[in-house]
Specification:
Length: 248
């Protein structure tokens, strides 16, 4: 689906030529009484706009993609793949996400708990994998995100918006965590935790600060400055970028 809401049918091998035009889902996200899945919208810090999801599994994958600095774009339900099955009947499949990577690569992604994949799903996933291979794209089926990692991602995502960033507080926090230390101790060293904690979590989301997110995030979590933050002089330029994004 293009940004103008126009749906086109193209030969699969021609799709890479127009992949940049895919900007929205090819189907809606219905909500009704008794529904077993939980659709919704997620505001992506990477894109500065909302992206739809059809289940909480998809939501957790969407948050993980938003957290990944190598991801520069995501479209949910991006296209329908049409093909003829071995029985001669027409088949179709709509992947869950089209992911644009910083290196220019494309990942087509389906979100499905592995224990819930039926035979019909396997057939659709195999057809999608073959199609992606022919155009040089990656394809994957993601299982549920680890429960602890997903919870940590969701917590940090609560502070992903640029309004949670303050350049002066960020500079103090980066100085404090040049030497790794407990999360709350560092927050208190940088000022009043009511003011420093939101910025600290924003820096963790932005990966200027890093911590082991495979264990539950707590006041004892060991936090340190990310290797990519070579000097405090980077804070000024990066803060300008964040603050300008918040004005959109």
């Amino acid at each position: 689906m293009s940004g103008a809401g126009v749906e086109r049918r193209v030969c699969w091998r021609s799709l890479p030529e127009v992949v940049g035009e895919i900007a929205g889902p090819v189907r809606s996200f219905p909500s009704y009484r008794g529904q077993r899945n939980f659709p919704g919208w997620y505001w992506s810090a990477t894109l500065g706009r909302r992206v739809g999801f059809e289940s909480w599994v998809e939501r957790d994958h969407l948050v993980a993609l938003d957290f990944d600095p190598a991801v520069v774009g995501v479209v949910s339900q991006p296209f329908r793949l049409l093909w003829v099955g071995e029985d001669g009947r027409p088949r179709r499949h709509t992947p869950d996400f089209l992911v644009h990577r910083e290196d220019g690569g494309i990942l087509v992604l389906d979100s499905r708990p592995l224990d819930l994949i039926a035979e019909r799903d396997r057939t659709a996933f195999a057809a999608t994998a073959r199609a992606c291979e022919t155009v040089g794209w990656d394809y994957a089926v993601w299982d549920r995100v680890d429960a602890v990692v997903a919870a940590n991602h969701r917590w940090l995502a609560g502070y992903r918006h640029p309004r949670c960033f303050d350049a002066q507080v960020a500079a103090r926090l980066l100085r404090v965590f040049e030497q790794p230390g407990p999360l709350m101790d560092g927050a208190e060293s940088a000022g009043d935790p009511l003011g420093t904690l939101p910025v600290l979590y924003n820096l963790l989301w932005r990966r200027w600060l890093v911590a082991d997110l495979s264990v539950v995030l707590s006041h004892r979590t060991l936090v340190r400055v990310a290797p990519k933050v070579a000097s405090l002089s980077e804070v000024a330029s990066l803060s300008d970028e964040l603050l300008s994004a918040g004005d959109r």
